[in-house]
Amino acid sequence: DDWPGEPNDVFWRQQIDSAERELDQGDWQAAVERASGSNLQDSARARYVIARALDQGAEVKRDNSLLSRAITAYLSLLKMNQHLTDKQLLEITRRTLDRIQFRGNYLNAEPVYRLLIRRFPQEPAYRNNLTISFLMANRPDLAESTIKDTLKLWPDDRVALAHHGFVLKTRHNLYEEAAKAFKKALEGDIGLANEARFYYHYGDTLLLLGRPAEAHEVHKRGAALGHFLSPSQRSLYNVNHLKSNPWWKIEDTPYVNLAKALERSWQDILKEGLAAAALYEQEKEGLKEKGDWSQLDLFVRGQEIPGRCKRAKVTCSIIKSEPAAFGCRRGQIKFSSMSAGTHVRPHVGPTNCRLRMHLGLSNTKYTYIRVDKEIRQWQTGKVFIFDDSFEHEVWHNGTGTRLVLIVDVWHPHLTTTERRQLPAI
Ligand code: LMR
Ligand code: MN
């Protein structure tokens, strides 16, 4: 393809050829310098060399500020979009979007999708991907208006319908309408909306509506499609082939000593949990159907919350004796406080990579937890272990505020390498 803005002067054309060679040979700094020559401002080919060279530099040096410069360079090249061929535009935008997503600055994707939408108005995928960028950027308002535009043009587009269901559910709490949108999007389990996250939210919407039998049908479909490990184990960030049990015997885990140490010190742990009362935060994922539920994090994603261990010395010294607990980057260590009368609706955790230990601390009488099909009770001073990637539900039907210590530990079957390399959650 010919590139727009190619210089008339043979010297400058050869400068770009040389810069392209330098780029191919990995000398990205030389390529940037040469392609930035004074007479090359209007050359798309030179600008593309600069963007790719900065991109290459960012990868070699793992340097985010170089990556930001590369993205800026791609975006400036794309200002010439009207003069680029379809093929050129697609090649450049593909890499630009990939780098923007990697950098995590999702709003930068908007102008790129806008010009793809303008160039290919018959293609709903660009609008749907713009919706995803807005959702990733935590801008459900912008996502919603994009969805509505898309549905005006294509009322039956499954991905737009599924996103609409998601926004109706999570932004507006309009569960009936959300369920209808999901139903249409996932009818027959075919098409581009056939994705784990949509089955997850469809089922959850039906649970919110108090329609567990229909929810179960959706969860069965999701599991049959391979989106869930099983209808009741619906975590979305999974490692395959880990043993799946809703409830674990402590003796079947390598955490017997940890459990014993926690049980031995439960009274000191209780004191520490009570003494920090002012620091607890309300649970805000909308999981409780009624009541009060708050938590105090000590470790999150394998990192201590600064200053917390000073206030909970005994608890932390026990935790710090078990790397699978304090180093569990897919979990938390926290006190969990629940007032009498609370009901936590059925839900699942995000990952099958952890097991969740609970140490009962106070007012455990008439408190119940269902994990999958089996209901158990807390006991003060005692530990139990369950897998919170299975559906679970909690009732506090007793009196007084129930306190427990929650200790997430790596699933025992994860390898050392997996524990080191899995992205944190
Ligand atoms: C949960 O993990 O959802 C609950 O078990 C937490 C709690 O405090 O009981
Ligand atoms: Mn839970």
How does this model look, in words?
The chain has helices at 10-24, 28-35, 44-61, 64-78, 86-103, 109-119, 124-136, 140-153, 158-170, 175-186, 196-208, 212-224, 256-264, 266-275, 308-311, 313-319, 323-326, 416-421, and strands at residues 247-248, 281-282, 288-290, 293-300, 303-304, 332-338, 343-347, 354-362, 367-371, 374-377, 383-386, 392-396, 402-410. The chain is α+β, with helices and mostly antiparallel strands and 425 residues long. The chain folds into two domains: 10-224, Serine Threonine Protein Phosphatase 5, Tetratricopeptide repeat (Alpha Horseshoe), CATH 1.25.40; 247-421, B-lactam Antibiotic, Isopenicillin N Synthase, Chain (Jelly Rolls, Sandwich), CATH 2.60.120. The strands form two sheets. Strands 1, 2, 4, 5, 6, 8, 11 and 13 form an eight-stranded antiparallel sheet that branches. The chain has a five-stranded antiparallel sheet with strand order 3-7-12-9-10. Helix 1 (10-24) runs antiparallel to helix 2, helix 5 (86-103) runs antiparallel to helix 6 (109-119) and helix 8 (140-153) packs antiparallel against helix 9. The longest helix is centred in the first third of the chain and has 18 residues, at 44-61. The model has no long low-confidence stretch (mean pLDDT 96). The structure holds (2S)-2-hydroxybutanedioic acid and manganese (II) ion. Manganese (II) ion binds at residues 347, 349, 388, 392.
